[in-house]
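Field guide to reading this record: the first block holds the primary sequence, the second block holds the structure written as discrete tokens, and the final block holds curator observations. Each block starts with its own label. This record concerns CPBP family intramembrane metalloprotease, catalogued under organism Flavobacterium macacae.

BLOCK 1 — SEQUENCE
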Amino acid sequence: MFIEQGFKPNDNRFWKYIVGSIAVIGASVIGQIPFGIAIAVKAAMNNMPMPTGTEMMTILESNLTLFLMLISFPVALLGLYLIVKFFHRQSFLQITTSRNKIDWSRVFFAFGIWAVISIASVGIDYIANPENYELNFKAVPFLILAVIAIILIPLQTSTEEYVFRGYLMQGFGVLAKNRWFPLLMTSVIFGSMHIFNPEVQKLGNIILVYYIGTGLFLAIITLMDEGMELALGFHAANNLITALLVTTDWTVFQTHSVLKDISEPSVGLTIFIPVFIVFPILLLIFAKKYKWTNWKEKLTGRIIFEEKN
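BLOCK 2 — STRUCTURE
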């Protein structure tokens, strides 16, 4: 069982997950140093004060900004790998899946199905509301974006998945000895981490329903499937397709994508449709394909683990 793999007598106590999380944050901060240096140099060259907040996202060329933002994630992932291996004395596979090896077919299936849905939804909206978009495609900047995105965005999304649906999922399981607590806690923390995103400032806190709902969906498929493979594929497709296909002036990633959404942002059904309609449909598809059963026990049941002296 996936979540039980975090239970290692005398090695895994909840305080270790607190220390480990702080260490991962520290590694991420180290990975952000090049971004900070580049911004400081650019500001000095332009004889301007050091930018803060959303201004930091616009001072550099967008491909360079994206690259420098994303390189902190491989650093954080390396930090997490070292923490799991040497501090918790676990293999990285144990926070990935309960299977003997990573099932890449699951990763690619989840990636493919969400990529198709994402592309189709943008295509339908473009046809229905062409006035909301303008063509943003420029061959050379787009090709540079594609290289950066294809290499680094899966590392970014994988880092987030390993932290939330792997490391912290097992950590909160160790703390609570049940499944519903890690299910809810990882979802709420994951969603709340987006509160400083520009889109939250633009649309209001109501958009956190989408982020927390997405975290809940990813946590459910991880617990039901006894591994992170589906979550890894879904999250990679979500961020990669968005970065390549459409950008706006008010989201956290502003890229040389194919299209630019120039509509005035507003809170509408598009925020709630994925959480309350699309994600439940995906759950049914995954459940049928992978023959999920015993939902109540896997999502809310107690974890019984007897420590041996």
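BLOCK 3 — OBSERVATIONS
The chain has one domain: 3-300.
The two ends are 22 Å apart (CA to CA).
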